[in-house]
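re the bet — no i am not wrong, look at it urself. input seq straight from the record:
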Amino acid sequence: MRLPSTVAVGLLAAPLALAAPVTASAPATVTVTVQPTTVISEKVVYTVTVTGSCLAATTHTTSPTSVSATTTSSALNTNPYPTSTLLGSDTQGLNDLAKATGKLYLGTAADIPGPELSDVGYMTLLNNTHEFGQLTPANYMKYEYTEPQRGVFNYTGGDVILDVAEANGQLVRCHNLVWYNQLPYWLTSQTWDNATLISIMTNHITNLVSHWGTRCYCWDVVNEAFNDDGTYRADIWYNTIGPAYLPIAYAAAAAAAPPSVKLYYNDYNIENPGAKSTAAQQLIASIKAQGIRIDGAGLQSHFIIGETPSQASQMANMAAFAALGVEVAQTELDVRSPTLPPTVAQQQQQKVDFYSSVAACVMTEACVGTTLWDFDDTYSWIPSTFPGQGYGDPWFEPAGTDTLVKKIAYDGIVDALSGKPVST
């Protein structure tokens, strides 16, 4: 659950002085105290302590200063926050920086419609096109939502995020058409013959792609078709239709899609060279060899702090996809901590890992942009999927507030988009 939206409190309007603590009063009984404590890597670290009968957030106005925020754990948080959360600088505008490098966007996924819509701080940032030039619906274009009964289509959830994006002038990566997961019960509860399942699949693709048309920049047509060893995933599509389901899906999408709408293959663990990446490349080459349109490779990029592929490895992998004549994109980027709360060292490494990933896209001409798999830990998918892990996004909301606070991971993205070495 989330608390009702409230006005952000405890905003500091002037640079912080080192001589003495700074205290800002807030409504009710909340007090925000900022105390200079130490210096790490030539940057002053502040402790921001929030106390009172309810919790309020702080925003800092210092230039590239890391800040340590102490917050009280709450059921409202999806992650426990460390005693020392290193915060990002005041640099603004990830999408502006991305477009300045020649990319189409820096974007984010959002699970809209949902509680996010009533979160003032979240929606304010989502609507900020200086930060985000592209949105991806995290769930509401998936099969179980769009075709809850056979032949009965529901476009309501997808329309909500499209309406938000269009009001802002943001591109939308429509996600996704064919996947092994989040399928409706009517589809998974019985056995289908080959011809019938092909008809069901192509009808679903045709209806969604035709309905939303050019409102989508692209579609993730098939999602996660391979195991990590490069073999085909055993699922309803492969088990019934065989590997032919993939070119059939792309042929159906190509027949329904306007020429400007890109058709992607999307998967995780294909971000650096290996068996799974090779399988995805072979799939793309095979589909193109059959004269069927496929335009892009989506590299999901769900990484772990300290285990993220190097910039050089990611660039080499992107080049291999680009050599097939398709564009590439980082479609679901996050960098999670394997333990909670993360240490200061892990937070600093997370900054480097975000840098390495985004810099790989910046340095690869065929990479059109990077999408975060949500930007706020409050709504992250990670803790529910990987218990005991989290802290994977560049922003967080202190509990009970509508103010988002940047982590130093944000600065790693800024450095990458600015063409600078990662700052320490």
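see?? The CA atoms of residues 134 and 340 lie 30 Å apart. told u. also The chain has a mean pLDDT of 84. so pay up
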